[in-house]
Amino acid sequence: MSTEEKRELLKKLYFKTDIETKIGQKPPYSESERFVTGEGSVDAKIMFIGEAPGQKESEQGRPFVGRSGMLLRTLLKELEFNPADCFITNIVKWRPPQNRTPTPQEIIYCYHTYLKEEIDIIKPLIICTLGASSLKSICPMAPNITTARGKQIVYENCILLPTIHPAYALYNPAEKETLRKDLKTVKELAQDLQNIAKST
Ligand code: URA
């Protein structure tokens, strides 16, 4: 699929929100919460998946632009991730009331309505889930986050590498190193997979 075709498909996927809002199928979030799309290169090799937008994300309509987003983006920069290799999104596309954890129903709705198709369009080599909800949404049988983080799991046509949520690292500064270490593993793995793809 060409880059242009991928962009068109993503646009259509996100646009269907308007139609669904009108026919009342979206989860019962406040009308003032904005739909937050994924962001980054449609040809990304790495897809980062968070849980749900917070206040800043809802205001700007962009994922990971609040405090935990700043931590994530700073670490990606420090580790010299190429922005052209990255796509950042969330399972749930609206901010839940009072920033509560999304319910299983909201996760299932957003997975089947958006996330599954986002993954199908981008076709990343690596998915890095950020936090427990994100891991469970795409891989319900995975061990819990404490056991699974930093480990590689074969997931459909790519490798899933779960890590902790950046918000957790903000509240537990010692965990910043855990997040950095896992992101470094993601970067190295992406390089290895690209080298293998080039040599075959
Ligand atoms: N936390 C998330 O999981 N996603 C965001 O976009 C921001 C904070």
Write the topology of this structure:
Layout: H1 3-22, E1 39-40, E2 46-50, H2 55-60, H3 67-78, E3 86-90, H4 104-122, E4 126-129, H5 132-138, H6 145-148, E5 153-155, E6 158-160, H7 166-171, H8 176-199
Helix pairs in contact: 1-4
The structure holds uracil.
Uracil binds at residues 50-54, 57, 63-64, 66, 68-69, 90.
Give the ordered list of helices and strands.
HEEHHEHEHHEEHH
Overall average residue pLDDT: 91
β-strand amount: 5-15%
Distance between the termini: 20 Å
Hetero ligands:
uracil
CATH-defined architecture: 3-Layer(aba) Sandwich
User: Biggest sheet: strands, sense, closure?
Assistant: 6 strands, mixed
Number of continuous helical runs: 8
Molecular structure report:
The protein is α/β, with parallel strands linked by helices. It contains 8 helices and 6 strands, in the order αββααβαβααββαα. It has helices spanning 3-22, 55-60, 67-78, 104-122, 132-138, 145-148, 166-171, 176-199, and strands spanning 39-40, 46-50, 86-90, 126-129, 153-155, 158-160. Strands 1-3-2-4-6-5 form a 6-stranded mixed β-sheet, sandwiched between helices. It starts with a helix and ends with a helix. The relative contact order is 0.15. The model has no long low-confidence stretch (mean pLDDT 91). Bound molecules: uracil. Uracil binds at residues 50-54, 57, 63-64, 66, 68-69, 90.
Features:
single chain, 200 residues, alpha/beta, Uracil-DNA Glycosylase, subunit E, 8 helices, binds uracil
Outline of the structure:
The chain is an alpha/beta fold and 200 residues long. It has helices at residues 3-22, 55-60, 67-78, 104-122, 132-138, 145-148, 166-171, 176-199; strands spanning 39-40, 46-50, 86-90, 126-129, 153-155, 158-160. The mean pLDDT is 91.
